[in-house]
Please model this.
Amino acid sequence: MSKKSRSYVRFPLARRIEHLTMLLSFSTLGVTGLVQKYAASGLSIAIVNLVGGIENLRAIHHVAAIVMMFGTMYHILLAGYHVFVKRSRLSMLPALQDIKDGWQALMYNFGLAKSYPQMGRYTFEEKLEYWAFVWGTIVMGLTGFMMWNPVTTAHILPGEFIPAAKAAHGGEALLAVLAIIVWHMYVVHIRRFNKSIWTGKFTEAEMLHEHPLELADIKAGIAEPRLDPKTLRKRRKVYYPVAGILTVVMLVGVNSFVSGEKTAITTVLPISSPVPIYLPQTPTPSPTAQPTPTSGAVVLTWDGSLGPLFQTKCGACHGTTVKLAQLSFATYADTLKGGQDGVIILPGEASGSSLIQKQQAGGHPGQFSAEELGLVSQWIAAGAPEK
Ligand code: HEC
Model:
């Protein structure tokens, strides 16, 4: 074979950009997602601090999710174009032959088959990865929606689905990241360094080695259906409006996904929370003792302590709103004026005051304690001063 062998276009620029977009959004989602799944680990805390806090990390995760949504939209529209306009071969569809190929490859690796399977445009490994990605995107999209829009979800499904969605989102994420690290890395980097997703090209030798059946079809001129420009134009005329409507529907979907609610469930960091939630940093101060009428410092005047005492003990029935027996203790003047039977306090004469007599007799709906009555007597004996 000559050194200047022909090269074959495997991935046009648009597909390479698509791959790069998915690579970047997937990696960002993986890192920012696993940090939230394992929020207590030291590495997670370091990453959260690096991006300036959990809210920033969540924002990055959401932006990467939106990028992936747009990537998926683009992929759907492009797949539609290939199926309906170009009528390309559905080379990514799984077939029985893939199972046979997989089996033969396994046997070959064990030394039990003479040759490695000859495969076409997409090998069974590539198909497996592609459909795993499709499946993963569906699971992550649905469960992501449920976490981003828990109120809407709870209208449709029982509330238990929201924590279940969170568990599934994290589990599927781990599976996807590990699949990329183990499977994808091995197939395209370790087994043979496959640069075609970056260069877009394969040499003839590489084609012969990796996709011999496709190479045969290309050489036979049957790899892609021949298209005459007229039918192509006719099909585009149908497809473009349909794709346009589909685009609008998808954009509306993405918009309600992203901004339908402001109630997305959050990640609470168990360790790096700056303020302990349940442990008060300063002990609650114990209440300072209120001065009571018995304490020596209290001045026996109406304004000082007697007024408040009468109002709390007797105010419910003898006040401005309720004034039983025409008696009110609301003010000093009211108190000295007395009730329906005249004055009840004779300043300087405690035992002669009917208030004291009535209270000493007991049985009144409102009663002073013996201690309080002693104070009231002292106050009256002292001339019942106002100030
Ligand atoms: C649950 C309502 C109620 C409370 C509380 C109450 N009283 Fe009376 N008080 C009455 C009623 C009813 C009368 C009229 C019947 C009577 O004289 O027993 C009255 C009458 C009086 C009279 C007689 C007034 C007059 O001119 O005939 C005095 C004095 C009096 N109360 C003092 C007090 C004092 C002091 C307190 C607070 C320690 C107090 N009362 C709390 C219901 C209450």
Observations:
- The chain has a mean pLDDT of 88.
- The pocket of heme C is lined by residues 313-314, 316-318, 324-325, 327, 338-341, 344, 354-355, 358-359, 364-368 (CB under 6 Å).
- The two ends are 119 Å apart (CA to CA).
